[in-house]
Specification:
The protein has about 220 residues and is of the alpha+beta class. The chain contains 4 helices and 9 strands. The chain folds into 2 domains: about 80 residues, Nuclear Transport Factor 2, Chain: A (Roll); about 90 residues, Roll (Nuclear Transport Factor 2, Chain: A), CATH 3.10.450.
């Protein structure tokens, strides 16, 4: 092969190599958008590292201006009469090469602390829309109703779990009370060393306990 032919082959090889390198650099330099699911998982993983004993769930996720705003519910002692609840939001953004710029906290509100409901200004709240199971539990326990307090005191706080379920309509057949209710929480206190549970029926709108009863279940 003559010199010109060999030079032509070398030139072709160099073109191929440099073209591939250019495409690779261009591809790596482009930001790759996270999916919403990936952004949620990123925030959850980071929050779980900081709060290993908490129950953490995503309550909202929005995408605006190239970033995701992920809002979390963080709950400690979720099944106790006095859980702690706070809401935390994070903005997730991307830089080139699929590298995260970092998690930037965007919101923080503490809603339950020391067995007391508080508003977004961290002030004690007497009027409260009871929009979470934890808030419903704390509200019923904080009212110091004799039936609930006596039950917890007798069988022990550490032995007692509390759960709440929201009912758009609660039939009196389910409560054995004289009437049915609309838009209420049904809260159950269950001690491991007791053979019965204590229940409270609580208004979603203002946290008023409108009925209570005991049951063997």
């Amino acid at each position: 092969m003559d010199l010109i032919g060999r030079v032509a082959i070398v030139v072709i090889i160099l073109i191929v190599v440099f073209s591939g390198a250019f495409l690779l650099i261009k591809h790596n330099g482009q930001a790759q958008q996270l999916t919403q699911q990936q952004a949620e998982q990123l925030v959850l993983t980071d929050a779980q590292k900081s709060n290993p004993q908490a129950n953490i769930t995503v309550i909202s996720a929005t995408n605006a201006s190239g970033s995701y705003n992920i809002v979390l519910s963080v709950v400690y002692n979720a099944t106790k009469p006095c859980p702690t609840l706070f809401i935390e939001g994070f903005d997730v953004q991307l830089t080139g090469g699929n590298t995260l710029a970092g998690l930037a906290p965007s919101t923080y509100n503490e809603y339950i602390d020391n067995c007391t409901l508080i508003n977004s200004n961290n002030a004690s709240s007497t009027q409260y829309l009871v929009s979470s199971p934890e808030a419903a539990i704390v509200k019923s326990y904080d009212l110091h109703l004799p039936q609930i307090n006596n039950y917890v005191n007798q069988y022990g706080y550490s032995n007692t779990s509390a759960t709440a379920k929201l009912y758009p309509y609660l039939n009196n057949n389910e409560t054995h009370l004289a009437q049915s209710y609309y838009n209420v929480w049904l809260i159950r206190y269950r001690a491991t060393n007791a053979n019965f549970s204590v229940y409270a029926v609580e208004s979603f709108d203002n946290g008023t306990v409108v009925g209570n009863f005991t049951n063997s279940t």
